[in-house]
Amino acid sequence: MDMDSAKRGLTIEGLLQLEPMSGSVVKAAHRNTNRVISRINIIGGPDILNWVRPGEFIVTNGYPFQDNPEAFADMIPQLQERNIAGIGIKVRRFLREIPESLLKNAEEVGFPVVEIPPDTTFSDIVRVAMEEIFFKESEHIMTLYDRVQFVSQELAKGQSIEEVIHQFEHRMGNPIIIYDLEGNIIAPLLEKIIDKDDLYQLVSQIERKTGIGLSKISLDSEDIYCFSTPLLNEYSKRHISFIACLETNYQLTEIDCLTIEKISDLLSMELTHLSAKKKIEQKYMEQFLSDLFMGEALTESDIHLRLTAFDLSLEHNFYQVLMIDQVSSNNDIYQYLKSFPSERDFLMIGTTFKGKLTLLLAADNCEKLKEQMVLIDQRVTKFHNSKKVNESHRIYVGSPVSVLLEISKSFKEASRVYHIMNKYQVTETLHKYENMHIYRLLYLLPENEEVAQYIDQFLQPLRDASINSIDYLKTLEVYFQANQNVKLTAKKMYTHYNTIVYRLAKIAELLDLDLKNPENLLELQIALKLERLKSGKG
Asked: Which residues are in the Purine catabolism PurC-like domain (predicted)?
C-alpha cells in the first residue's frame, strides 16, 4: 500500500458513482481505483505532460491522438511516474475504442484507465467532482480538529493518559500504542488480546521503524501497516518514545496519520510533565527504601507515615528483599516487572541501590513470596528474550521477615548472598540466603591475620607448585565440585583420568595430608571457600 491508498477523499471508485460518470467503465488497473483525486483536468492538446500535476484525474476525448494512438499508449508509463491518479477517455468520436496497446501498458504499470460514454459532458464531471472533493477535504479538516480537540480537552480535565487513549482508540477505529518516556507501554486494546511478551516484541519492531512514516510490522505472524511518530524525550537515551496507530480494523488514511502527528505534541508535553513528577517521587522513594534497607533509625510509625505519602501500604505478614544483578537498564527491567497486573495480597516496590535493582516484596504468606520470586526470575529472562539480547542475570534473596523493622536484615542477607555467589560460575539464576549453608558462617569471619594464615597453610604450597599447564588449586576445586569423583573430575577438566589421579597424589604430597581423611578434606574445602570469599566481601 502506498500513501495514495492511505488517503481520504474522492477516489476513482467514488468518481464513477457520481451521476455525470454514469455508464463509465474501468478498462485497466481496476486494483488501483482506490487512488484519491486532487482535481479533474480536461486535456485537449498533445503536450499532456506539460499540463498535469500529481493526483489529478485526466479526462480527454482522444482528439490529439486520433492519428497516432501508439504515442498515446507510450505516454501512459510517464503519467504513472508523475503520480497522476488515472485517466478517463471518451470514445467513439475521435477514438472508436481505447487502443489495446494503451490498455496493456496501463495494466502493466497499474495506471487506471476509464472508458467514458460519448454523450458525457466534461464540464458536468468537473463541476460535480470538484464539489465532492471540496466537501470531503473540509470534512477531513473538521475530523482532525475534533480528534485533537478531544485529546486536549480530556487531558485538561485531568483524565489519565491510559483512559484518554482508551477512548481515542474508539474514535480512530484502530489500536494505539504509546511507548512513553520511562519505557512504559500504554496499549488499552492490544493489552486485552496479546500477551505481555508479544507486546514488548511488537514495541521493539515499531521502535526500530519510528520516524519513517507508514511501515510494515508483524503481528500474530501477519504483516500489517503501522504509522508511528516519535515523542519528544529529553530524559532517556535508552529508547525511542513514540505513539503509533496499527492498521488492524480499518485502512489507515492520511488524516489518521496527520492526527497521530498532531496529538504527539500534546502527549509529549503531558508525558514530560508526568515524568518530571515521577522523578521527584522516585527520588523520595529511593531515599525511603535506602533508609529501610540500611535500618536508618526508623520506627514503624515513621514507615507508615512515609508510605502514606506514596499511597502505599505494607499491611502484610511477611517481607523479603531481593537484588537483581544484570546488564540491562534497571529502570527498564523494573518497569517491565511492574507492568504485570498486581495481586491483592502482594506488593513489590523497588529502586536501584548500589548499582543493582533491589526489590522489596510483601505478601500475606511465605508461599506467595516464593511464588513471586520464581515469577520474577522467569520474567527477567523473558524480558531479555523479548529484547533479543544475549544477557544473563542473577537474583540474590534474603530471608523473609515478619516485622517491618527487620527488612534491613533481609537486605543485608541478600547482599551477603551477592558477595558470596558472584565469585562462582554457576548456571542457576536464583540464589537464596537459606541455601548458603556454611558460607553464612564463613562470611562472618573477620579478615585478620589468623584467617589469612589458615588459607595460606593449605593453599600456598599448591600455588607455588602450579605452573601454566598444571593448576593444582583448580584441580582440587573441581574435584570437590564433582563430589570427589575422579572420573567426573577428569571429564569436567577435559583431562585424562590418570592425570587427575597423579595430581591428587601430588597435592597430598605437597600438603602432607591424607586425602582420604574426612577432617583433612573438610579443612581443604573451608580454605578454598575462604579464599573465594576473601575478595568478595564488601
From this structure: 15-133
C-alpha cell at 54: 500529481
pLDDT digit string, tens, across residues 315-333 = 788 999 999 987 667 788 8
CATH 1.10.620.20 fits 159-273, yes or no: no
Structure confidence by residue, pLDDT tens digits, 349-395:
998 888 889 999 999 999 999 999 999 999 998 888 877 666 788 99
Cell numbers 558460607 correspond to what residue? 439
What is the fold, at CATH topology level, of the domain defined by 295-436?
A: Alpha-Beta Plaits (3.30.70)
Domain range summary for the chain, segments of one domain joined by +: 3-133, 159-273, 295-436, 449-534
CA nearest 160: which of 133, 178, 183, 135?
178
Q: Could you give the CA distance from residue 274 to residue 263 in angstroms, rounded to a whole number?
A: 16
Distances 217 to 205, 221, 222 between C-alpha atoms, Å = 7, 10, 8
Q: Phi and psi (nearest 5°) for 93?
A: -100, -60
The tens digit of pLDDT for each residue in 189-212 reads: 998 888 888 888 899 899 999 988
Residue 449 backbone zone (phi > 0: left; psi -120 to 50: alpha; other: beta): alpha
β-pair partners for 59? 42, 88
Domain 3-133 carries which CATH code?
Answer: 3.40.1390.20
Residue 40 makes CB contacts below 8 A (sequence gap 6+) with: 56, 57, 59, 125, 126, 129, 130
What CATH number does the domain located at 449-534 have?
A: 1.10.10.2840
424-461 pLDDT, tens digit per residue, is: 666 788 999 988 888 777 777 777 888 888 888 988 89
**How far is Cα 252 from Cα 240, in angstroms, rounded to an integer?**
22
Q: Contact, 115 vs 91, CB < 8 A?
A: yes
CB-facing half-sphere around the CA of 528: CA atoms within 13 A: 18
